[in-house]
Amino acid sequence: MKKFNFRKVLDGLTASSPGSGSSSGSNSGGAGSGPLHPGGTAGVLREEIQETLTSEYFQICKTVRHGFPYQPTALAFDPVQKILAIGTRTGAIRILGRPGVDCYCQHESGAAVLQLQFLVNEGALVSASSDDTLHLWNLRQKRPAILHSLKFNRERITYCHLPFQSKWLYVGTERGNTHIVNIESFILSGYVIMWNKAIELSTKTHPGPVVHLSDSPRDEGKLLIGYENGTVVFWDLKSKRAELRVYYDEAIHSIDWHHEGKQFMCSHSDGSLTLWNLKSPTRPFQTTIPHGKSQREGRKSESCKPILKVEYKTCRNSEPFIIFSGGLSYDKACRRPSLTIMHGKAITVLEMDHPIVEFLTLCETPYPNEYQEPYAVVVLLEKDLIVVDLTQSNFPIFENPYPMDIHESPVTCTAYFADCPPDLILVLYSIGVKHKKQGYSNKEWPISGGAWNLGAQTYPEIIITGHADGSVKFWDASAITLQMLYKLKTSKVFEKQKVGESRQSCEIVEEDPFAIQMIYWCPESRIFCVSGVSAYVIIYKFSRHEITTEIVSLEVRLQYDVEDIITPEPETSPPFPDISSQLPSSRSLSGSTNTVASEGVTKDSIPCLNVKTRPVRMPPGYQAELVIQLLWVDGEPPQQITSLALSSAYGIVAFGNCNGLAVVDFIQKTVLLSMGTIDLYRSSDLYQRQPRSPRKNKQFITDNFCMRGLSNFYPDLTKRIRTSYQSLTELNDSPIPPELERCKSPTSENRENSYNRSRSSSISSIDKDSKEAITALYFMESFARKNDSTISPCLFVGTSLGMVLIIPLNLPLSDEQRFSEPVMVLPSGTFLSLKGAVLTFSCMDRTGGLMQPPYEVWRDPNNIDENEKTWKRKLVMNSPSSSQEIGDHQYTIICSEKQAKVFSLPSQTCLYVHNITETSFILQANVVVMCNSACLACFCANGHIMIMSLPSLRPILDVNYLPLTDMRIARTFCFTNEGQALYLVSPTEIQRLTYSQEMCDNLQDMLGDLFTPIETPEAQNRGFLKGLFGGSGQTFDREELFGEATAGKASRSLAQHIPGPGSIEGMKGAAGGVMGELTRARIALDERGQRLGELEEKTAGMMTSAEAFSKHAHELMLKYKDKKWYQF
């Protein structure tokens, strides 16, 4: 009886995909999913590789968010801790301190943040949301958590005020009422200031919502309440009555006190500022319209735009500062939003690039009854955050240490490099610092709170962002921070477009013709390459020296047309039919003949943009080496580039689109290959197609071609290009065209029968209406043909129909010949196939080590000392391990948007196949290094992040992380080594995440501390006279006035208390183990004590009632004791 090896069976089952039991059809190298062992060599290879990665190494978590908070709504500052909080319309809060202290937290409801209030120097923050809920955040931990929430049920919150060193929060509502909340327990006090009690009884109209609340600096027992209609009430909290009332014709937007508490200033909807004195409340002490035109005597000044906010800050040795936003004249409609600073007689208007959301004046003291001594103004704009230095007369701004300008131009693509060469960051910074803006304040950044250290993560990280204006930014992303290193403007290689020429010469896009689509960077050689939306590729080399030179440009004619065909029946097809009349034609891609349409001369052989022809000065940094542009062909614009790859070792760049592939030698500045996709299959195709001239009345089809690339994610840029993933999947599910059948691997079983397949009408229509785009490119030392004995330079080409072509590159042997001898590029006829568009390639050696593509070691191309000597290019080839044994020496990993396969080379045997998804598709896939082992990381359109071990494709991690709600995420999501990834979470913010368990464990140590123990500064000595006549603020006891004993309890229906996840109640579900038992016991004791306290209160109440009843009964008895019955 034959023995059965159960261990092998179990290994095979564990390596296969769960739920991928369906066959992969007639894919070359084998069908089905899971491991395949077609040959003995493959089995040997599999036994040699020990995969060390397991699920214990992986965990998904967000690390840090960079950039400007999207759609900001609120601003707050702690003057003692010196930290800043920004609230947004999406319910997010960003808390900023010194560089490295940057915290992001989110309200679960997603409601907009209306207002933020710090508990000064207490490590806590109160947020008011648009769903009428107050939240108390604990900032004494690195990840802030909500301690309490209070949901208002019957009234809408409009304004909040928390006095300094007070635990009672004033809350104004839309109905005009003012409630008071205990911050410690987050329970409403029974003390309420009703709107009808605050205004005069004779007033017949509602005063409107509460727009301002503040206690008097002179007397904490007096509260200033501002209503929207222009009414201001000075409320005495002890006597529960209005001490004085102020009325004005215009609506009030904001109020601020003079520090002495005798005057306050209001801003109004007509652009006026009114100064009121408490001694004469009948009319304003002073009324000004700062930006109104002066009128004749007796006439009212001209109205201006509303002043949305004003701040009135005093100085000991100079005139007070009056700072306000808005208030400009209506006749200056084109003027930008502005902040006005009035200091004495000087009026300075600071124009802003974006509308002002909020501003705060930073002062030396947190005490409202002292000279404020303002030193800076924080201005929150819709798309920027700036801080103005008030200590200098020209009011310069501080240099912002945070990466708030990521969105300076919209981000169109991203690239992420972890563990890159360590000297790159210093080199890029030394070049970029020379081009920084000047004129900043020479003082230190005033938002300097918190504490941060580098932590355990030490490897360098670089993020590259491409933008819509053609700029590229390099960022230092080491240790979860972000700092801009260097900015490159790619548009400088092109001539500036005139207004009348933009629509005529660049019809491929109507806006942003320089937008960056794809980025390719070789950190070792420092060669940088970009492709733009106007169908161009620019190659840059890095130099420390400035040069003045002409920009070399090449033009590539890359166009593929499919014409109507008549399909013959299989029995009437001759062995070699008349190709020109029956099969799709591919016009000569390098010809230059112009065609004439019926309406006139059509555009042909012209690029979308014009490269500068004069010598150009190039500063140190990245300097343009070569510009490659695709040309118009017969009135049709060039299609956008969908794939890009470069090899510094070979000196070759390759790019493709939906028409075909182009390969360019950037050392000799020559075009090596310019070929339609179908022509790449010709070496194994008996039905050779010859070039044909197109029909004059040809209708070019651009709506139904099959293309997967960045143009899918540019609906606003690609006005003339429309692609559909649905059409792509339909093509993938349909029968494979004969051209593709004939392009299968030589190991396919039915290869010899593929030539006689009939061309059905459905297949012909696919050929006619679709295009096979080049979606992935990869340079590597590999085996170009089956059973090759030696490796050679190769270019792997992946298409949107799942085909993989291996193209050998014949390079000159010596370094001297490389600059003169031609490079030969010819498709080899080697094909592999997958399901879905190909996304990425990678290679491993026979020991399971990830092979890096060869590269050239960087040298400065403009170094004069090196040019005087004879030098040679220093290449690092990273070839597979050499061995004299017969067998395979290399794995090739290929991932498409549906499945992943591992092939063994040179036998081209498919060892493993894993159907990653059937109902969705992969957006981004990369082979990355994790703990010195390789794995395949995928991000799916349904939001799943999946990790697979290599080479077995064994699933390790599958987490439903983020559903694809925005194409921005699909366009910018990228993985890199060491368990790092990122994506653009909003138009202004980058979200970084990790899938490394080690980094998740160490993340707490890497984050900054928001709260640091600092002593509250002492109040200034008021002096004897001020203490005697300065009011009764020092003796005011809020606890006695607002506490339950005096004010009673508020109505339960008015607001609902909700314990937060950071409170004791919120930790009930999180408690576990011994500590959990102790916590639960303590909670039970607290609850029991609370119930006993409530019972005791009820008992005391009953006793009080009984005593009152006994007293009244005794009094009644004494009253009627001596009366006769007839006297009643």
UniProtKB/TrEMBL annotation:
GO terms for biological process: exocytosis; Golgi to plasma membrane transport; protein transport. It comes from Chinchilla lanigera. It is a peripheral membrane protein. The keyword Membrane applies. Residues 739-754 have a biased composition (Basic and acidic residues). Residues 1063-1123 form the V-SNARE coiled-coil homology domain. GO terms for cellular component: plasma membrane; secretory granule; SNARE complex. Plays a role in vesicle trafficking and exocytosis inhibition. In pancreatic beta-cells, inhibits insulin secretion probably by interacting with and regulating STX1A and STX4, key t-SNARE proteins involved in the fusion of insulin granules to the plasma membrane. Also plays a role in neurotransmitter release by inhibiting basal acetylcholine release from axon terminals and by preventing synaptic fatigue upon repetitive stimulation. Promotes as well axonal outgrowth. The gene is STXBP5L. InterPro entries: Lethal2_giant, Lgl_C_dom, LLGL2, V_SNARE_CC, WD40/YVTN_repeat-like_dom_sf, WD40_repeat_CS, WD40_repeat_dom_sf, WD40_rpt. Residues 15-26, 580-592 have a biased composition (Low complexity). Belongs to the WD repeat L(2)GL family. It is found in: Cell membrane; Cytoplasm. One of its GO terms (molecular function) is myosin II binding. This is Syntaxin-binding protein 5-like. Interacts with STX1A and STX4. Residues 15-42, 568-598, 728-763 are annotated as: Disordered. Keywords: Cell membrane, Coiled coil, Cytoplasm, Exocytosis, Membrane, Phosphoprotein, Protein transport, Repeat, Transport, WD repeat. PANTHER family: LETHAL 2 GIANT LARVAE PROTEIN (PTHR10241), SYNTAXIN-BINDING PROTEIN 5-LIKE (PTHR10241:SF19). It comes from the Eukaryota. It holds the Pfam family WD40. WD repeats lie at residues 106-147, 245-280. Transmembrane segments: none annotated.
